[in-house]
Amino acid sequence: MKSVNDYRGQELQWVHPHRLRAEYELRAGDELLARLSHTRALSSPVHAETADGNWLLERNRLRQTIAVRALDTQAELATVIRGKSGRATLLIADGREYRWQCTSFWRDAWTWRTREGTPLLHMRSGARVQLEPAVQGLPELALLATVGWYLHKLQEEEATFVAALVPIMG
Hints:
Layout (H helix, E strand, L loop, with lengths): L11 E4 L7 E6 L2 E7 L8 E5 L2 E8 L4 E6 L5 E7 L5 E5 L4 E6 L6 E6 L4 E6 L3 E4 L9 H29 L1
Antiparallel strand pairs: 1-2, 1-12, 2-3, 3-4, 4-5, 5-6, 6-7, 7-8, 8-9, 9-10, 10-11, 11-12
């Protein structure tokens, strides 16, 4: 597996290579950069595997948070706090903070930004990933890419659930 940091300036793509497996891969052409896998529909825990780290993403539905734990030690490295309209904040244990925000009227483009507002990573039309020059040397880049995809898939799952409820409630 190659590091996401080595692919600035190239379009990256999240793919679902095996329709029968709950697994997604971030690719730059044929190069594998990250993998997200789970045993049930985005239920906890989700395993994120990259060249830069392996994590478990554990969702707490009541608090609308996601704990990011190191796979080997189970130490909590970061917390994602989900907000309204799909927004989220990734809080790294050392105090650094990144914000996930919609950047499109049609809700088909999302961006990770620094606390100061500098864009780092864009996810467009769900699966295309574009890296900004500001990500150079950013140690959390692989984590941002995998957590961003996880948040995108959660939004899709929740929208499907709500759409299924509308006929029942109506």
